[in-house]
């Protein structure tokens, strides 16, 4: 599969229909809206990658920021405005630092920008209540792995930058890699859009909460419709932990919810799944992190032991590689090391 | 609706991190920076795992991230040992020097134009001008605080 065979294939296809121009127009109209921000961001990224020739980085940066801003506008808003603000700041730090990592001309600067990107992801982990992962990212990733990288750069490349850092390699590698990355990002964003259209129903949760007697709006945590399975649409209802299951009359509940969802589900009777938030699922519960340890060492015990063995094997392997590389020089020179 | 919106946003950021790492891995020539981009891909995947774990109220997402961090640390150790070995052979961290490992039938990539070093990249040490005796500190000379 190389470029010429793809071109031949496309030409054969085009010969069948009315004309290449019409086909192209149809193709452009058929693309989903989310492609254009991705295309713009990809173009910006391509301009920013290390290249021989004149500097076009600022133009690339501007295009990239515009593209990412358009992409962010496609995403749905979070409930609280402070939540949204904090999330946008953390996300902006993460993505900008990630782009800076791959476009820096000096390897040391790239490592430090990567550490900043790790701080951004750590903040994102804290934002949704996984405090242990946030701390582990900082301590292990930013604190150990990035520092090891910097040590290796110090040993191998004391200036911190070299000729091969300033250019990319391969014929047209920048274009192909940005094309691959942009297509992947576009596909991911497109599939997310399909999920959003099916699951988010404006005001459905409020409607259901109003129709149920004895349940306030806060106590119905989530109500969403899942239409991904055509034969059996499902409705998820999640109540808070202080709701008494005996108080809910299930038949009334089912009738109300089905009537409210009738416009979305059509003729098929949806399956209604009710769940209650247990105390340890409540993220603000004071025993949140204790259950982390319990889970890790009860349900995933074998994996933990295996990970320990893996760490030992990696350590032994790394040391043996270095020792083997050193031995011939010791035999030659005899300099006591 | 807030749960789904949060999930959507997190998956978007995780996907962006992954694809940026992918682009960087394919483009850069410095072995260390390539490995940094691989770590960035792992970080994007971790973000997606935690997001899904929170959405389904399942601990499995965070458990998976713990093991991802463990494996990334092992991988970093072994990969950096290998990189140091390769660097000893050639003298620098350029991966295009190891093109003998490429596929059969492909031509080797040869640098067409090598860009000039930018002025801001040049770092020259500060030397005392010749003929001038540098200032010495007797105390410093006798008991060096740093080598």
Structure at a glance:
Chain A has 337 residues and is mainly α.
Describe this structure in words.
The complex is a heterodimer of chains A (337) and B (147). A three-stranded mixed beta sheet of chain A has the order 1-2-3. In chain A, 26% of the residues are buried. With 337 residues, chain A is mainly alpha-helical. Chain A has helices at 3-16, 20-30, 35-48, 57-74, 81-103, 107-127, 131-156, 173-199, 204-211, 250-260, 262-265, 288-298, 301-333; strands spanning 220-226, 234-239, 271-276. In chain A, helix 3 packs antiparallel against helix 4 and helix 3 (35-48) runs antiparallel to helix 8 (173-199). Chain B is mainly alpha-helical and 147 residues long. In chain B, 59% of the residues lie in helices and 0% in strands. Chain B has helices at residues 2-27, 31-55, 60-90, 138-142. In chain B, helix 1 (2-27) packs antiparallel against helix 2 (31-55) and helix 2 packs antiparallel against helix 3. The radius of gyration of chain B is 24 Å and the shape is extended. The model of chain B has no long low-confidence stretch (mean pLDDT 85).
